[in-house]
């Protein structure tokens, strides 16, 4: 994911039952490219449940997600 585009890894969280959440930051195009690469990699090794990109999130969103 991070190698596919100019993005910063904000965090990753194992949420149980083999599920993982990964958060990256960057411009919208780079984040979409990164998420697409990560989604393709996830499909190769298992099952992909969901992908969501938040363009221009409110400044408080990151602090809420990282709690």
Description:
With 67 residues, the chain is an alpha+beta fold. The protein has a single domain (8-65), classed as BMC (bacterial microcompartment) domain (Alpha-Beta Plaits, 2-Layer Sandwich), CATH 3.30.70.1710. The chain has two helices and two strands; from the N terminus they run E-E-H-H. It has helices at 28-45, 61-65; strands spanning 8-16, 19-25. The protein has a two-stranded antiparallel sheet with strand order 1-2. It starts with 7 loop residues before the first strand and ends with a helix. The mean pLDDT is 92.
Summarize the structure.
By secondary structure, the chain is of the alpha+beta class. Helices cover 34% and strands 24% of the residues.
